[in-house]
Amino acid sequence: MPKPLKIVIPMAGYGTRLRPLTWSKPKPLIPLAGGTVLDHLLNMFRTVPDFDSAEFVFILGSTMGDQIQDHMAEHYPDWHVDYAIQPEMKGQSDAFWQARQFLHGSMLMAFSDTLIENDFSFLQGETLDGVAWVKPVPDPRRFGVAVVNDRGEVTRLIEKPQDITKNLVVVGCYYFKEAEDLVTAIEEQVRRNVNLRGEFYLADAINILLEQGKQMRTEKVETWLDAGTLQAILETNQYLLENGRENTKSLPELDQCDIHPPVFIHPTARVSQSSIGPHVSIGAGAVVNGSSLKNAVLAPNCQVNASTLADSILGQNVTVSEFSGKLFLGDDSVVNQ
After folding, report:
1. Model's pTM, two decimal places?
2. What is the pLDDT of residue 81?
3. How many Cβ atoms sit within 10 Å of the Cβ of residue 8?
4. What value does the mean pLDDT take over residues 64-72?
5. Rg of the chain over all Cα atoms, to the nearest angstrom
6. Judging by DSSP bridges, how do beta strands 114-117 and 223-226 pair with one another?
7. Is 7 helix (H, G, I), strand (E, B) or coil?
8. Cis amide linkage into residue 262, ω under 30° from 0
9. Which long-range contacts (CB under 8 A, 24 or more apart) does 274-281 make?
10. Which of 124, 145, 143 is nearest to 134 (CA)?
11. DSSP assignment, residue 97?
12. Hey, what domains does the chain have and what are their CATH numbers?
């Protein structure tokens, strides 16, 4: 029997760029287009060969990881998920090292704020040792890039290149035919003490794999979405709503409402006497009355009354009354102007 594919998602980071929303929840549970970032991330793997037998490995931080486990138990009770803990923030490679007991056989990984649109079915016949998903960009100098030879094979990964002709930016998704090879490379990386300001980066471990003769190629993606900053969440929400995640046509009759697609309104939300959209996502149990919302994401159980909001993200159980403007609010906040 072949070993099931491991799908590994490191999610131990503090999510400081998403505060205040991440003061009380891990960044994969930030609301996004009718679900959470994690829901959309998991959905992107559904084209993986034999997806139903794949086993997930989540690498959690030492705090708030129980929320991830609760979310999976509630929404994905039949999925096989193993959990590892990264007690200290010592970098990406260290995260995989903490999960090494689960890393056997073929492995696909993506960082928790990386969303791509891609068909993974080709992995069934992949012959090389690894694949790095990339996207060409005009100016790659603030990213990591893959350098390739004439055969399209990766020869090295470079962080923040000064040569903009090397523009294949690695988007944070990789495949390894043998996960054990990566674990061995990380062990060598730590032995050599290859780190940057105390953090061990995955790119350095992959370069060790390449030194050892492993063969990796690139796979280009057309759509690469970011969920790592508040502004990026809004932009990704817009894209997802414009590309199949809105539910305007299935909405019930709403009391005295003007709906401007694309929007997502959860069936259990109550919206009345309001103008909604475009690019608005309203979560389960939310209540919106006498308000105008544009380019906004409301987590479950928000209440918005007599307010005008644009370019805003509201965490769970937020209450906003008689406010006009832009808000980024963490869970359980109250604004009453």
Report:
1. 0.90
2. 95
3. 24
4. 90
5. 21
6. antiparallel
7. strand
8. yes
9. 278/241, 279/234, 279/237, 279/238, 279/241, 279/242, 281/31, 281/32, 281/33, 281/34, 281/237, 281/241
10. 145
11. H
12. 6-226 (3.90.550.10), 246-336 (2.160.10.10)
Residue 146: strand pairing partners: 157
Give the integer Cα–Cα distance in Å for 217 and 168: 12
Cβ-in-10-Å burial (0-12, 13-18, 19+) of 100 comes to middle
The residues that bridge with 309 in the sheet, in sequence order, are: 293, 325
The structure tokens listed for 123 are 């992995």
Check if the beta carbon of residue 10 is closer than 8 Å to that of residue 94: no
**10 within 8 A of 113, measured Cβ to Cβ:** no
Residues forming a β-bridge with 36? 31
Cβ partners under 8 Å of residue 104, min gap 6? 3, 6, 179, 180
Pairing of strands 308-314, 328-329: parallel
- What is the pLDDT confidence band of residue 277, given thresholds at 50, 70 and 90? confident
Tell me what the mean pLDDT of segment 286-299 comes to.
95
C-alpha distance from residue 321 to each of 300, 308, 318, 335 (Å): 17, 9, 10, 6
Residues 117-145: tens digit of each pLDDT = 889 999 988 999 999 999 988 888 878 89
Q: Are strands 270-272 and 223-226 parallel, antiparallel or unpaired?
A: unpaired
- Digit-coded pLDDT (tens) for 165-215: 888 989 999 999 999 999 999 999 999 998 888 889 899 999 999 999 999
pLDDT tens-place string over residues 251-273: 877 888 999 999 999 999 999 99
Both tokens of 133, joined, read: 């998903």
Pairing of strands 270-272, 280-282: unpaired
Whole-angstrom distance, CA of residue 331 vs CA of residue 35: 16
Average pLDDT over residues 246-250: 88
Q: For residue 1, what pLDDT is reported? A: 54
Of the pLDDT bands very low, low, confident and very high (cuts 50, 70, 90), residue 65 is confident
